Structures are given as structure tokens and as C-alpha cells.
């Protein structure tokens, strides 16, 4: 009998140091601590250029998405069919969580060898400074246990909303993947040959509290996502910036009700480097808290991602299982891709 690895098992194989997990109590600090003070930077490209906005109802949607993935690795999706009140409910449940007193949130702290719960970003150990950020990671069925730790008597609403949210995001992510396959001329038979039964995914709630010195703080340091694609809902506060080759850092302007979709490492590999795995980061705000919900969509953890090579081209990467790639990223986010270069 074959056994399957869950996504949280793949992450649990890479324990973090306890001091790389516990967020500071943002309410108790009135100036930016040295530990969170980054060198000044002023590298934002402030031109008229902006991320493509795509209507899912457009008859040419596959082509538009394909082109956006190729040129940008990111786009904003409108008329995506996810009800606005679900987005608002999920956002307000996330807000309710992060508004809890620090000591309450620490009851759901991610364990050092854990994958889920409250804590700072997994990439923290790879940077000298801490980020102005707190997160809550949901994978598999852990949500009930953590929600009970946070709200012993009224966790049902939180769990219901987050479960519905993940189900809807999964359907949308499947649909987007089909459209991207179509744009890459991958036939249904080829897609079936990949033999991806189901998917594995995670939901990350992000909070970037208001910050006394926003120019010296970093919400989330530059990174690429380990996913096939990531679907992001953000509140109305700007902060997300993406790096575009030959241009530089570009801000993503929040569009009410739109979802930000970005290409992760796994689609970069699968597309044989035709799609960039877009580098992105988050800045913080002096007055307002920023909230976001990121849905990471992956093939099953044990499945193998094989680059799709067009005739006349060569494979840029060797085949890799999702599990192995997660492990390479955990060792070094920057070197993971070069480890599988052909
Ligand atoms: C399913 C995922 C994807 C993770 C790890 C795990 C749970 C949390 C995700 C994030 C969220 C914040 C940025 C990131 C870079 C991080 O540090 O944690 C992401 C990471 C990845 O995309 O690699
Ligand atoms: O908060 C954001 O806009 C981006 C979050 C993000 O990049 C992530 O969770 O991986
Ligand atoms: Fe990200």
C-alpha cells in the first residue's frame, strides 16, 4: 500500500528555532525596535506601469492569463465568482484573530516542528532583521484545534468561514490552472498524465500592524511562493510590491473585490521557466493595519512536477516532487531552484 504525505508533514520535517516563531507584542511597542529596523531603501519604481487586471468572464481569458503569467507572473482577477461577502467575512475573522491580546494568540503558537498556527513568517531565519508581521497558517484539519485554543467557546464561525473560503479558493485555483494549461497548449490528455489526484493547499492569514517607523520596517521580505499559484485577498491598504525584470519594484494598487493571482516556484518549473516565479514583498503603513489572506495551491505533496518542454527547447529543470522541493526551499529559499537546474 502506498502512503501519502500531507503538506503539513512535508513542512514539519523542517523545524524552526523557537525564537524564529514568536511575534512581538505589537501593541506594547511605541517605537521601532532595533531588531526590526532595516536599512533605508528607496527603490520603488513609481511610473504609470501596473499589473494587468483580468476579467474572468472575458472570452479570451485563457490567452490573457497566459500572457500575464509570461510577462508579469502576476495579475489581478475581477469577476472571479467568489462572493464579496465571503471575502469580507474571511477578512473580518482574520481581523478578529489578530485583535486578540498577544497572550491569547500565543496559545495557538506554531510548534517549533509544526506547520500550522500563529507565528512569524517561515522565511524569518534567512534574514538579519525581523519583519513587521504576524501570521496564522492553516493546513489540513488543524484549524479546529488552534481555533479552540484561541476561542474555547466560540470558534465555530471562524472555522466555518475559513473552510468555506478554502473550498471556494480551491475551485477557483483548479479553474485558473485549467486556463493556464490551455494557454500553454497542454491537452487534457497531457494534463491527465500528470496524474495529480486532488491538490494540497494552505491558507495563510497575514497581519501587518500599523508601524511607528514604516520607512525603516519591512512587512514581508522579498520572496517567491513555493506554490503553483497563490490567490491573495488583501484589505484596501496598499503594501504589496512585485519585482518586474528590467523595470524594478512595482506597487500593486488594491482594486476593491479583485484577487491577486501570482505564479509560484512550481508553475515556474512546470512552465519550463516560461513564467517567472514573481519576487514580491510587503511594505507597512503608519496609521492602518494591513490584512491579507494568501491561498497557496499545490499539486499533491508526493506528485512530481515535470517541466513541459516545447519542441526545439531543452528542459531547464529536472523533475522534482513537491515534497523534495519544499525541503530544498526550507534549506535555502534562494538556492532551491538552482539545485534542480539541468
Ligand atoms: C504552504 C506554505 C507556503 C509558505 C510556507 C507554508 C505555510 C506558510 C507560507 C508562507 C507565507 C508567508 C511567505 C512565505 C514565504 C513564508 O515564509 O510562509 C510562505 C511560504 C512559501 O511560499 O514558501
Ligand atoms: O500580504 C501580501 O500582500 C502578500 C503576502 C504574501 O506574499 C504571502 O503570504 O506569501
Ligand atoms: Fe508571498
Automatic annotation (TrEMBL):
Key word Oxidoreductase present: yes
Keywords: Dioxygenase, Iron, Metal-binding, Oxidoreductase
Keyword Glycoprotein applies: no
UniProt-listed InterPro entries: DIOX_N, IPNS-like_FE2OG_OXY, IPNS-like_sf, Iron_ascorbate_oxido_reductase, Oxoglu/Fe-dep_dioxygenase_dom
Cofactor: L-ascorbate
Residue span, Fe2OG dioxygenase domain: 198-299
Gene Ontology MF annotations: gibberellin 3-beta-dioxygenase activity; metal ion binding
Metabolic or biological pathway: Hormone biosynthesis; Plant hormone biosynthesis; gibberellin biosynthesis
Enzyme class: oxidoreductase
Enzyme Commission no: 1.14.11.15
Family label: Belongs to the iron/ascorbate-dependent oxidoreductase family. GA3OX subfamily.
Protein's recorded name: gibberellin 3beta-dioxygenase
The organism's taxonomic lineage, starting at the top: Eukaryota, Viridiplantae, Streptophyta, Embryophyta, Tracheophyta
Amino acid at each position: 500500500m502506498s502512503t501519502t504525505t500531507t503538506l503539513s508533514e512535508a513542512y514539519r520535517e523542517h523545524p524552526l528555532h523557537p525564537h524564529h516563531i514568536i511575534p512581538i507584542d505589537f501593541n506594547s511597542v511605541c517605537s521601532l525596535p532595533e531588531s526590526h529596523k532595516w536599512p533605508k531603501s528607496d527603490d520603488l519604481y513609481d511610473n504609470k506601469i501596473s499589473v494587468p487586471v483580468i476579467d474572468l468572464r472575458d472570452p479570451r481569458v485563457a490567452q490573457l492569463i497566459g500572457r500575464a503569467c509570461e510577462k508579469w507572473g502576476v495579475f489581478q482577477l475581477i469577476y472571479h465568482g467568489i462572493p464579496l461577502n465571503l471575502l469580507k467575512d474571511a477578512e473580518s475573522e482574520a481581523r478578529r484573530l489578530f485583535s486578540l491580546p498577544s497572550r491569547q494568540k500565543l496559545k495557538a503558537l506554531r510548534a517549533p516542528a509544526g506547520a500550522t498556527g500563529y507565528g512569524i513568517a517561515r522565511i524569518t531565519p534567512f534574514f538579519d532583521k525581523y519583519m513587521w508581521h504576524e501570521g496564522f497558517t492553516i493546513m489540513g484539519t488543524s484549524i479546529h484545534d488552534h481555533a479552540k485554543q484561541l476561542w474555547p467557546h466560540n470558534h465555530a464561525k471562524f472555522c466555518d468561514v475559513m473552510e468555506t473560503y478554502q473550498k471556494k479558493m480551491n475551485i477557483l485555483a483548479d479553474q485558473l490552472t485549467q486556463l493556464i494549461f490551455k494557454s500553454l497548449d497542454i491537452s487534457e490528455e497531457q494534463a491527465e498524465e500528470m496524474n495529480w489526484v486532488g491538490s494540497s493547499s494552505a491558507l495563510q492569514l497575514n497581519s501587518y500592524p500599523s508601524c511607528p517607523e514604516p520607512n525603516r520596517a519591512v512587512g514581508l521580505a522579498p520572496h517567491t511562493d513555493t506554490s503553483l499559484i497563490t490567490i491573495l485577498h488583501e484589505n484596501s491598504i496598499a503594501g504589496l510590491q512585485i519585482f518586474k525584470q528590467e523595470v524594478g519594484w512595482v506597487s500593486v494598487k488594491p482594486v476593491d473585490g479583485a484577487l491577486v493571482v501570482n505564479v509560484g516556484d512550481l508553475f515556474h518549473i512546470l512552465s519550463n521557466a516560461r513564467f517567472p516565479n514573481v519576487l514580491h514583498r510587503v511594505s507597512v503603513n503608519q496609521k492602518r493595519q494591513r490584512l491579507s489572506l494568501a491561498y497557496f495551491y499545490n499539486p499533491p505533496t508526493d506528485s512530481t512536477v515535470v517541466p513541459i518542454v516545447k519542441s526545439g527547447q531543452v528542459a531547464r529543470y529536472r523533475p522534482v516532487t513537491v515534497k523534495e522541493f519544499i525541503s530544498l526551499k526550507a534549506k535555502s529559499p534562494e538556492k532551491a531552484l538552482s539545485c534542480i537546474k539541468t
